[in-house]
Amino acid sequence: MVAKEMLSDVIPALKTSDTGLTALNWMDIFKVTHLPIVNDKEFLGLISENDIYDLNMPEEPLGNHYLSLLRPYVLDSQHVFEIMEIASRLKLSLVPVLDPKKNYLGVISLTDLLHYFAELSALKNPGGIIVIELNQNDYSFAQIAQIIEGNDAKILGAFITSNPNSVKMELTLKLNVTDLTSIKQTFYRYNYTVLGSYMKHDDEEDLLEDRLNNLLKYLNI
Q1: Do residue 201 and residue 105 come from a single domain?
Q2: CB 3.0–4.6 Å: which of 13, 32, 88, 193 could bond 93 by disulfide?
Q3: pLDDT in tens, 33-46
Q4: What are the pLDDT digits (tens) for 67-94?
Q5: Are both 102 and 127 inside the same structural domain?
Q6: CA-CA distance, 199 to 39, in Å (whole number)?
Q7: Does residue 138 share a domain with residue 205?
């Protein structure tokens, strides 16, 4: 999944002739805290909700003010993981997308980004989720896959959450089965620490939200 396949078809770009009030109204409508300012096809930068409040004259056109704007963007060919890294690092509610000539194409919202990631990693497919903790030096995906497949299950998706201040890591596995009893017992037998398993729909959705937030926080590209 690359940036040009995820462009929002509803979130508009601001012009310098638009007022701060217009920007705040659009931010409220589209549930974002940033909007791009674009001159024709030239991306001038992102303006945030806080930037507008700091102007103190939101009824005036944005072009009447000196604006020190961030200019984060991704190219249309960049992968979803790279887009997530930028959104996480800069705490953005959306990410502008440019073509190779640096012409503005549109934006990808954080909500859509999480939706596409869920599709990419098979998190929406039916099945259970199991979370294990292990030392980074002990990580062997081959052995973990062998344990799963030895219990007549398959791994639909997997991702790692790591903390730079710890030697521990968490591996979240999405499987194609909902009964995880025998898989958990096998992990225990191999001295893995199982932090949790989630078989019900409600529990699964809570876990996905928590794990996606952790991924945005710790993801390293």
Answers
A1: no
A2: 32
A3: 999 999 999 999 99
A4: 778 899 999 999 988 998 899 899 999 9
A5: no
A6: 50
A7: yes
